């Protein structure tokens, strides 16, 4: 492989890994607080993209206003989803909450098909993100440069919230022991709702950036990215924010590079994520940065 081709694929891998990391953080935050896998997270990702699409096309908003509105709606939807689908089952067995999450995922997908239609839609072109940038012989869309930067900014802000604010302290307390947090006068419901809101907002950012890079929307667009980002979170160590980022970048890098070096395996691209998951779980079941835990069922 030529050096220029290698760097071209490296930039693609960095961009894709950043997208995976953004979405995986949402998975890992919810799990860290509730020990719950939010299987509807990929569908929230899809809604973020659709909210931005309709804000730009139907409401004729400037793209930056549309993105802010879409993110606010996505965060609000995530908090509403927690209130309706998860909070009533909080004291139920974990399997009940998991079934509710799966049901919420299917419901959102099918309602999306009814509301948005099954036919794919093309996201309108935004010059800032569609400009072709050249670095020597390496060419890429400007959105591929924005995605890693946005991921880094979001990660820094999130780590500051978790480790440098009272809200983050409450999140860590609820994550450690929910009942003890209640005894310490922490508003558990508010903390969990806020966690879902932040996680959903990150999914919305990922959905918008995804449609900038791959400008086609459909109601099932979140299924495979959602699965892969769940895998990324598990690989990095579910419940660990830095682990989710590491897992996302690792998954994106392996997925792009294997296809680049072995193009005959392009049709098996999605399978590599599941193979990597199996290998990591066999070698280090808690994930690369995770710690072994005993989970009450």
Describe the overall structure:
By secondary structure, the protein is mainly alpha-helical. It has a domain at 23-220. Helix content is 73%, strand content 4%. The chain has twelve helices and four strands. It has helices spanning 3-34, 41-57, 63-86, 94-116, 127-130, 142-164, 166-176, 178-183, 188-213, 223-236, 241-261, 269-283, and strands spanning 121-122, 132-135, 138-141, 216-217. The strands form two sheets. The chain has a two-stranded antiparallel ribbon. Strands 2-3 form a two-stranded antiparallel sheet. The longest helix has 32 residues, at 3-34.
**How many beta strands in the DSSP annotation?**
4
Helix and strand run: HHHHEHEEHHHHEHHH
Q: What characterizes the major β-sheet?
A: 2 strands, antiparallel
Gyration radius (Cα, Å) is 19 Å
Strand order of the largest sheet: 1-4
- The shape is globular
Content-based structural category: mainly alpha
Low-confidence runs of at least 5 consecutive residues: none
Mean pLDDT comes to: 89
**What is the number of helical segments per DSSP (H or I, 4+ residues)?**
12
Proportion of residues in helical segments: over 70%
Beta-strand share of residues:
under 5%
Give the termini distance in whole angstroms.
50 Å
List the defining traits of the structure above:
297 residues; mainly alpha; two-stranded antiparallel ribbon; globular
Please sum up the structure shown:
The protein is mainly α and 297 residues long.
């Amino acid at each position: 492989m030529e050096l220029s081709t290698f760097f071209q694929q490296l930039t693609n891998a960095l961009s894709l890994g950043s997208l995976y990391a953004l979405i995986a953080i949402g998975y890992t935050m919810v799990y860290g607080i509730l020990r719950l896998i939010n299987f509807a997270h990929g569908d929230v990702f899809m809604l973020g993209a659709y909210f931005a699409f309709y804000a730009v096309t139907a409401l004729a908003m400037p793209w930056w206003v549309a993105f802010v509105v879409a993110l606010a709606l996505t965060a609000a939807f995530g908090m509403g989803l927690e209130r309706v689908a998860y909070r009533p089952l909080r004291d139920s067995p974990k399997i009940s909450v998991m079934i509710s999450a799966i049901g919420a995922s299917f419901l959102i997908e099918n309602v999306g098909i009814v509301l948005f239609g099954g036919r794919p839609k093309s996201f309108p072109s935004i010059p800032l993100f569609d400009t072709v940038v050249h670095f020597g012989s390496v060419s890429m869309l400007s959105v591929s440069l924005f995605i890693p930067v946005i991921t880094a900014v979001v990660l820094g802000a999130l780590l500051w919230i978790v480790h440098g604010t009272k809200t983050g302290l409450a999140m860590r307390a609820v994550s450690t022991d929910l009942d003890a947090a209640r005894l310490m006068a922490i508003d558990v419901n508010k903390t969990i709702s806020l966690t879902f809101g932040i996680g959903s907002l990150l999914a919305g950012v990922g959905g918008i950036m995804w449609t900038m890079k791959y400008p086609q929307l459909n109601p099932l667009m979140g299924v495979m990215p959602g699965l892969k980002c769940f895998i990324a979170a598990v690989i990095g160590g579910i419940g660990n924010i830095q682990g989710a980022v590491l897992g996302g970048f690792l998954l994106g890098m392996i997925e792009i590079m294997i296809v680049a070096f072995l193009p005959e395996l392009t049709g098996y691209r999605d399978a590599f994520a599941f193979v990597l998951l199996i290998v990591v779980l066999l070698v280090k079941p808690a994930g690369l940065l995770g710690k072994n835990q005993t989970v009450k069922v």
